[in-house]
Amino acid sequence: MEQPVLVKSFANGITLVCEKEASFTEILDAVTDKFEHSGRFFAGSHLALRLEGREFSDMEKIRLVRAIEESASTEIIDVIDAAQEDSAALVKEYKGLKEELPDMLRVIKGPVRSGVELEGSSGVLVDGNVHVGAQIRSEGSIIVMGSLEGCAHAGYHGKRDSFIAAMDFDPEGIQIGPGEIVRTGLMKGRSLVVRKENGEFQSQTLDFPFVPEQVQPDKSKVYWFFGVGRNVGNTSIVLHTASYWARHGKKILLLDMSGGKDNLAARFGIDDNAVFLLKNLLKDQCSFFQAALRPKQLPDVTLVSSKKPLLFLNKDMQNGLHLLFAAVKNEFDFILVDASDSDDSVVRTACKEEGRKIVVSTDDFTSLSDADYFISRLQDRGESPVALVNRCKGKDLEDVKMASRMQKRLEIPIIECISEDPHVSVAEKRGVPVSPKSSFGEGITVLCNTLTGTISTLFATPSAVKTETSLKTSPSDVQLPKSIDASAILSRLRSHNRK
């Protein structure tokens, strides 16, 4: 394409086909020039704007809209990304809504996760889900191209004719017009638009499809396990993952940031041997060989321990961690980091380093909410984390929708669900690996094989997993699936529940 921008038309709108390599300044100047010369053709019209060729930030979209409106004396009623065109189906297909849309929609790429509050001065369109614990406020209408499970307040400055629309309507609370958010007695359903008439909420059912978010796989042999919440079993997951790979001839480095009474060294029975800790190594107060511990049970595992949780990393420690990875990553097949829901300095440091970020949660409501918020912290820094759900309770295993609900809630790949298993604590007290035939042992097998791409399905039944499989596949071969296979995981979990 010789020009930064080509202008095309479609029914009730215009398309800007933008050169991918052109800078935003070049595109903005070209748009301004084109519409100044052809503005008379659009004067007084109300158009949708479709963007092709490259992605734009919300602020860039606003500047493009202003340039077109000022140059051509027209009004842009909607902004559509070509890559997200399915998300505009609500605007295009809902009869009677288009005329009611505000002059300017704030387009937000979802999901909007727990603890996040967003506000729009006119109207808001969320391309994704609004999670429990999130809140959207708008002076105009609110459109959610996914599930609305948080709070939505439309027309909060008095615009009583605003509406709230969502593909899956199940909010914590809503309000239209002035007033407090109503949190009880709400309507629920698929594809609803809700208005307020004579002080009462009224709903209308509408029809359009939902397109799930695409997830790109990671390529690394470094795995950060973030245990989010209390008693999620993160250290047990790291310990037995290392044990599995070590038993298959892999050299493993464990970095313990969680610390505490039941830290990794304590579980190996070598806590008293730790003279120098991870913090000493990161501060350059000792050598790697002085800090390294080697459990007798697993000679191919090297551990750098922490007595207390390592919740904060100053700049020197951040630099020390970077130098440590650079120095030792070629000496080990896998590096596992046992981390917790830490200070932002740890999260920031983790996101600067290579590696797959794994968020470990349980299946209870509070833990999933904490995980949801933590996932947003990682995604805000450009990460594509995956989730692991541990200690799934027996009473929930008969619910066929359990795994699907967790997938829907977190909106990232769930690489494994592991049921609560008493064999874990028994094995760790005896200082031996958990039996590969237990539900936890099979979960670890599936986890390790999924991470390395040895098996291709997200959740495999026991017959599909061979405990002694040789791990020859490179982590670069891993292709993380897009969604959970709920029936397979529940089948395996229930078989152990019956035992």
SSE blueprint:
Elements: E1 5-10, E2 13-18, H1 24-38, E3 46-52, H2 58-72, E4 75-81, H3 89-93, E5 105-109, E6 117-120, E7 123-127, E8 135-138, E9 142-148, E10 151-154, E11 164-169, E12 173-176, E13 189-197, E14 200-205, E15 222-227, H4 234-247, E16 252-256, H5 264-268, H6 278-282, H7 288-291, E17 292-293, E18 301-304, H8 315-328, E19 334-340, H9 344-352, E20 356-361, H10 365-379, E21 386-392, H11 402-410, E22 414-419, H12 423-429, H13 439-452, H14 486-498
Parallel strand pairs: 2-3, 3-4, 5-7, 6-8, 7-9, 8-10, 9-11, 10-12, 15-19, 15-20, 16-18, 16-19, 20-21, 21-22
Antiparallel strand pairs: 1-2, 11-13, 13-14, 17-18
Helix pairs in contact: 1-2, 4-13
Structural description of this entry:
This protein has 499 residues and is α/β, with parallel strands linked by helices. It folds into three domains: 1-83, 2-Layer Sandwich (Transcription Regulator spoIIAA); 94-211, Pectate Lyase C-like, CATH 2.160.20; 222-498, P-loop containing nucleotide triphosphate hydrolases (Rossmann fold, 3-Layer(aba) Sandwich), CATH 3.40.50. Helix content is 29%, strand content 25%. The protein is built from 14 helices and 22 strands. The chain has helices at residues 24-38, 58-72, 89-93, 234-247, 264-268, 278-282, 288-291, 315-328, 344-352, 365-379, 402-410, 423-429, 439-452, 486-498, and strands spanning 5-10, 13-18, 46-52, 75-81, 105-109, 117-120, 123-127, 135-138, 142-148, 151-154, 164-169, 173-176, 189-197, 200-205, 222-227, 252-256, 292-293, 301-304, 334-340, 356-361, 386-392, 414-419. Strands 17-18-16-19-15-20-21-22 form an eight-stranded mixed beta sheet, sandwiched between helices. Strands 5-7-9-11-13-14 form a six-stranded mixed beta sheet, with no helix packed on it. α2 (58-72) links the parallel β3 and β4 (75-81). α1 packs parallel to α2 (58-72) and α4 (234-247) packs across α13 (439-452). The chain is elongated. It starts with a strand and ends with a helix. Mean pLDDT is 76; it is low at 85-103, 208-218, 395-400 and 455-494.
